[in-house]
Design goal:
This protein is an alpha/beta fold. The protein is built from 13 helices and ten strands. Strands 1, 2, 3, 4, 5, 6, 7, 8, 9 and 10 form a ten-stranded mixed β-sheet that branches. The protein is globular. The relative contact order is 0.10. The model has no long low-confidence stretch (mean pLDDT 88).
């Protein structure tokens, strides 16, 4: 196991402004036995050319040019073409600390684990958010602990409070290649496909070691759903929800604990649809709002019980759902008007204070 090669997979698409910094952070790793697999997913800008130029400077870099088919296909292509004993993922507009691979690999060797995970530093609009470490120690999770990790992925809740949010994404992890090869990023999904990959990893891995440090810099760009209305948002969500329900039922059968987590997820995403279409977006008629959410309900056959609803701690979300289910749309409109007016008033007061 000593000094095994690490394959660093980078899906690349239209990121000419950032890809150079990303590649340089990988080339600068203190752990030298790496291969850098840049999968150019049919970029329309100069990203592919930049990748090719870097490949002429460093023989550890391989560039794979494919037609545009989405980030899941690009990541799967990277896994399939990897030659290392371990795989890690870096997004093309992010960057990593110089000792990330070395620290992760050493922990893998010391603890004989299938996955090593660490935390992130989140950058958003020139602000930096350090995700709080979970306690003060590193943590070894075995197969019995994975049920709590699955709950975190599916519901966002942690029974013990010691599972970092970075567990959901493919980044921030060093994965044994033989384990990664048993898993796939679902290429039919364009929402939370990384969660699906992580759930598969948990089914095939025997242990996971968490390094209580921040080695990965995650950059948030200005393209959130709140800023750009996507009327087909519900289609992306229902495809994801249906994939999860089918996969978890197929692999975990009638495990009642898992079933409860999945139902909680179903409830949370219906709440999310209601909040998105009725309270967040502008320039949409009430008829359209009702149509989008009702179509989501009809497409997604993934329900939840009254027991799950009664256990929900987000009482505001429950109230919105109650108004929706009772078709009290006029009250939802009043609520939204109040919400928008209140937000506008807060912004005006803030601007006055800043003058």
């Amino acid at each position: 196991m000593e000094n095994e090669k690490i394959s660093v997979v980078v899906p690349v698409y239209n990121c000419e402004k950032y890809i150079g910094d990303c590649i340089e952070s990988i080339r600068s790793q203190t752990y030298k036995n790496i291969e850098i697999i840049l999968v150019d997913d049919g970029s329309k800008d100069a990203s592919g050319v930049i990748c090719d130029n870097f490949a002429t400077q460093d023989d550890r870099i391989r560039v794979i040019h494919i037609k545009n088919d989405g980030v899941s296909h690009a990541r799967n292509t990277g896994i399939e073409n990897s030659t290392g004993g371990w795989i890690t993922f870096v997004d093309s507009d992010d960057y990593i600390e110089p000792d990330m691979c070395e620290n992760a690999y050493n922990k893998a060797c010391e603890n004989h684990t299938d996955i090593v995970m660490w935390n992130i530093v989140k950058h958003k609009e020139e602000q930096k958010f350090n995700f709080a470490p979970v306690g003060s120690d590193d943590i070894l999770y075995d197969k019995q602990d994975f049920i709590n990790i699955q709950k975190m992925i599916l519901t966002g809740e942690t029974p013990t409070g010691d599972i970092p949010i970075s567990i959901r994404g493919p980044y921030c992890k060093l994965i044994r290649r033989d384990v990664a090869l048993k898993c796939r990023f679902p290429e039919t999904l364009s929402f939370s496909e990384d969660w699906c990959f992580m759930l598969q990893l948990l089914d095939h891995a025997e242990s996971l070691f968490y390094v209580n440090k921040q080695f990965y810099h995650y950059i948030v760009r200005k393209n959130s759903l709140c800023n750009h209305f996507d009327y087909k948002y519900y289609v992306k969500i229902y495809k994801f929800i249906n994939w999860i329900n089918i996969y978890m039922e197929t692999t975990h059968g009638q495990d009642m604990t898992i079933k409860k987590y999945v139902e909680t997820m179903n409830m949370n995403y219906l709440f999310r649809m209601i909040d998105y279409y009725f309270f967040l977006v502008d320039s949409v008629s009430m008829k359209q709002r009702r149509m989008y959410v009702s179509e989501y309900e009809s497409l997604s056959e993934c329900g939840f019980s009254d027991e799950i609803l009664s256990e929900c701690k987000d009482k505001k979300a429950v109230l919105k759902y109650t108004l929706y289910s009772k078709k009290l749309f006029w009250l939802m409109s009043v609520w939204r008007f109040y919400q928008v007016t209140k937000t506008a008033a807060v912004i005006r007061l803030r601007n006055i204070k800043n003058k």
